[in-house]
Amino acid sequence: MQKFSLNPDFVLQDETSLRELFPATHDLAVQKCQSTLDKHARDFIGRSPFLCLGTQGLDGKADVSPRGDPAGFVKILDQETLAIPDRPGNNRLDSLSNILANPSVGLLFMIPGFDDTLRVNGTADLVVDPELLKAMSINDRAPKVAIVVKVTSVFMHCAKAFRRSHLWDPSRFQDRSEMPSLINIIMDQTTGAPDDATDMKALDDKLEEDYKRTLY
Prior knowledge:
Blueprint: H1 15-19, H2 27-31, H3 39-47, E1 50-56, E2 62-68, E3 75-78, E4 81-86, H4 94-101, E5 104-110, E6 117-127, H5 130-135, E7 145-157, H6 160-165, H7 182-189, H8 197-214
Antiparallel strand pairs: 1-2, 1-5, 3-4, 4-7, 5-6, 6-7
């Protein structure tokens, strides 16, 4: 694939140039931003089994991490504070390390079948309070860390992106088998995937067993 080069003549350099391209923000888009978790935000979070967590390190590198559990897994501690359990993963600890370096976080809550989403911004701490962690246990296994977020802004986000993408429309679902499996892709990118289909299936089966063993 040929390398792409940006033409600097068409790169925006300041916010004034950006805003000249768009109409003024609608009053409601400004007014809808809240500083606390009202009853609608709390209800949305209580129904959500999935969120995306955005973080950024001191070096400016950004990261977005998916977080999922049964609906209501994010605990609302008060109108300005929520807690996210950190479940077992690959131990890269990208999000957690970023939070230690830069506590600013952005959250995007989703509910299957809902085209609108909830956006929450705030500052995060990594907490190991045994009582809090115990309250987040699943199958008698508590998380090692809770991400406690002090909310600074919260607002509902419109459905346009989900409507355009048809994300929840079963007729638009793609066949996962049209791409290699996760472990196949990772091995292609690293040590090289085995050519033998039987060997590859054994690796796929091993990953599935690992999911069952380490999910919580």
